[in-house]
Automatic annotation (TrEMBL), chain A:
It comes from Platanthera guangdongensis. Keywords: Cell wall biogenesis/degradation, Golgi apparatus. The lineage of its organism: Eukaryota, Viridiplantae, Streptophyta, Embryophyta, Tracheophyta. Belongs to the RGP family. This is UDP-arabinopyranose mutase 1. The keyword Cell wall biogenesis/degradation applies. It is found in: Golgi apparatus. InterPro entries: RGP_fam. It holds the Pfam family RGP. The keyword Cell wall biogenesis/degradation applies.
TrEMBL record, chain B:
PANTHER family: UDP-ARABINOPYRANOSE MUTASE 5-RELATED (PTHR31682:SF4), UDP-ARABINOSE MUTASE (PTHR31682). This is UDP-arabinopyranose mutase 5. The lineage of its organism: Eukaryota, Viridiplantae, Streptophyta, Embryophyta, Tracheophyta. Its main location: Golgi. It comes from Platanthera guangdongensis. Belongs to the RGP family. Pfam families: RGP. Keywords: Cell wall biogenesis/degradation, Golgi apparatus. The keyword Cell wall biogenesis/degradation applies. InterPro entries: RGP_fam. It is found in: Golgi apparatus.
Amino acid sequence: MAGVPSSSSVPTTPLLKDELDIVIPTIRNLDFLEMWRPFFQPYHLIIVQDGDPSKVINVPKGFDYELYNRNDINRILGPKASCISFKDSACRCFGYMVSKKKYIYTIDDDCFVSLLLSSLLFSTGIFLPRVVKTFARFFETTSVNLCTWPFFRSTDLSRNLVAKDPSGNQINALEQHIKNLLTPATPFFFNTLYDPFRDGADFVRGYPFSLREGAPTALSHGLWLNIPDYDAPTQLVKPRERNTRYVDAVLTIPKGTLFPMCGMNLGFNRELIGPAMYFGLMGDGQPIGRYDDMWAGWCAKNNAFHQILTLKLRLKLLILGTLRLRLARRWEVVNTVICDHLGLGVKTGLPYIWHSKASNPFTNLKKEYNGIFWQEELIPFFQSATLSKESTTVQKCYIELSKQVREKLSKVDPYFGKLADAMVTWIEAWDELNPSTTAIAPEANGTTDKK
Amino acid sequence: MSFKINDNEVDIVIAALRPDLTIFLEEWRSIFSRFHLIIVKEPDLEADLQIPHGFDHHVYTKTDIERVVGASLIDFSGHSCRYFGYLMSSKKYIISIDEDCLPARNAAGDPIDAVAQHINNLETPATPFYFNTLYDPFREGADFVRGYPFSLRDGVGCVLSSGLWLNIADYDAPTRAVRPNERNARYVDAVMTVPLQSMMPVSGINIGFDREILGPALVPALRLKGEGKQRLETMEDIWCGMCAKTVSDHLRLGVKTGLPYVWRNGSGNAWESLRREWGGVKLMEEIVPFFQSVKLPAAATTAEECVVTMASLVRARLGSVDPVFLRVAEAMEEWVKLWKRLNFH
C-alpha cells in the first residue's frame, strides 16, 4: 500500500480499534506511552490513577483516554468502592468495570528505585536482617516519593517496554493478543505443535477431529523478556537472572490445569469473562500484595490438586520467616476455574514485552509473605472447587465461588472473609455499571484529549 | 532431584523400514556413536541392511521376533517393529527416532543433539501439577514464576520425553492432503511438562523414555487394518502415548514435550493413507473420551498393573463400540506377559 510505513512493527490496520480498551493503572505519569504510541494510539485508554487524587497525571498528547482517580471511584461506586484496592495496581480492575468495550488489554506501568540501591539492599540483606527490615519499612512508606529523587530515579521510568523479536523487529504485543483472542483455544486436548490456529501450524496426528473447533478464547496471557516475573525469594536468590529465551509459541492451558497468571501483559474478552477479572483486596490496609493477578487466575481455572506441606518445606519457610517482615501478598488470580466451567479457553505465551526493571525484592517479600504460605492452601482449594450447573453466567459462577471462599478459606485467615465480601460487592458494582439494558457511562475526572 | 544419566544406560532403537541406513546413520554419527544401537529390521523387509562401520549395534530380524515372541497377537510389522527393540533392550532408557529423520541444524549449521536433549529432559524433574508459564523451570536461565507453590518445586521424575519435528510435521492424512506444501519452520525453544490429566497425542517419531518404569505402557496394541509403513496412517504410537500418559499421571510421574526437534523428511501419499487412516480418525473420537475417563485403582503401583487394569477397561467399555478393541485389550495383556517374561527385575 503506497504511503504506508513498511515496518512490520507498526500496524497499518489497527484491529478492533473500536472494540478494545487499554487499561493502565498509574500513580505518576505515563511517559512510557511514547514508546507504545505506534501501537496504542488508535485505541481508547482507561487510566486508573491510584494514590493521591490531587496529583495531576501527565498523559502524552494525542491519546484518546478517560481517567479515573480515587475520588471518581468513590463517587461512581459509593460504598461499593470498598472493593477497589487503594495504593495497589489491583485498582486497575475498576477500569475493566467502567469499560464499554468487548476486549481489554492491560499493561503495567510503574516507577521504582534504581538498580544501584536494590543491589546495596541485596548484599546488606544477606548479612543484616535488621538493616533489611529497616529499609523495607522505609521503602514501604516512601516508595512513591523515592521516584522523584534523582539519585534513585532511573532514567527509564517505565518498566514495561516494547520488546524485540529475534529478528530485531519491535513486537506489536497488542496485535498478538488480539490474534490470540480472536482465534479459538484448545483446552480439551493438548496439541504438541502448540496453537494450531497460528500461521504455519495445525493439529497434529492423533488430535480428535471433533475437538478441532476449539473453544472461545477468554484470556490471552503474555510473557516478559529480561526481568522475569519471579517471586521475592527467587529474586533474592537469583538477582541477575534474565529471561533471554524467546519462545515462539502460543498455547492453550489445558482444562483442569491451574497456572499463575501475571497481570503485566494481559488481554481478555470482557464480554466472556470480565466479571471474573476482579483483582482482589490489596495494598493499603491489606495483609497481602502481589497476588492480585494470581487470585484472578485461580478463580478461573478449576483443578484438583492435593499436596501436603512437607516438613522440609516448612523448615525452609520458617527460615524465610526469620526475616520477620510483615509482607502483604497480592493476589492476582485469573479466573480459570470459571473458564473451565463455562468451556472457555486461556492462552499463554506470545506476545512478549520487555520488562526492564526489577521491583524491590525486600518490598516484594514483605507483600508476598503471607501469600507464600496461603497459596499452599489456595491451590488445593481452587483445584477442587466445582461450580454447580445452575451457575450459567460468569457472575453466578463468581458469587458461588465467593461463598466457597468464605466457607473454606476464612479459617486460613479472616482476610478471606473480607475478600469474599469484596467479591460479592464487585459483582454488584459490575452489574450496576453494566446492566443488561443500555449502560450509562460514568463521568471521568480527566479530560479526553482526542487525536 | 536432577541426576546424571550415563551413556551406558541408554539404548537408541531404530526401526529399519528401508534397507539402506547409511545416510541416516552418517548424519547422526557424531551424536549416536557414543551409544549402543538396537536396530530392528522390519519383518517384511527382505533386502539386507546396510549399516556403516563404527557403530556399536545389534540387529534384530524377523527370525528373532519369531523366536522370542512366537505366535502373538502383537503385530511387530511396519513401525511397530521398534517395540521389539524396546522389549529386548536391557538399558534403563530408550531413545527412538524414525529413520526418515535427520538432525535439525542450528543457525551455524551444526547438528542439534536430540539425544542429549532427551536425556536432559529425562534427567530433570517434570512439573505436572501446576503449569509454569516460563515452561521448564529446570532449564538454564529459567525458574518457577511468582505464584508457583513452593511445595511443588521439587517436581517429579520425568519418564517420557516427546520431541518435535521441523520440515514435515507429524500431521495426519487429511491435514497433509489439504496442506501438502506446509512445512513446519517454527523452532519453539521450549520444553514443558504436559499437565496432569491433560491428554496429548505422543508421536513415536522422536521420543525418549524410562524403559524400566514405562516400558510396559508403551504397548503396540492398536493397529488399523492395513496400517504399517506410513506414519500418516499409524495409530499405534498414538494409542501407546495415551496409555503412557494415563499411567504416568496415575503414578504421579511426568511427561515432557517440546525440544528436541529433528528434521523430518517424511514420506507417503496422503490421499492413499487417507483411505486407510480414516478408520483411525473415527476411532480417536471414542478413544479420547475413554482415556479421559479412566481411573486406575490405587493398588496399581507399576506400569504392568496399570496396563492390565486398562486392558480390562478397554474390553468392558470399548469392546462393544468396535471389535478392534477386543483385540487391543488382548494385545495389552499379552504385552505385559511378554514384558514380565523377558524383563525380570
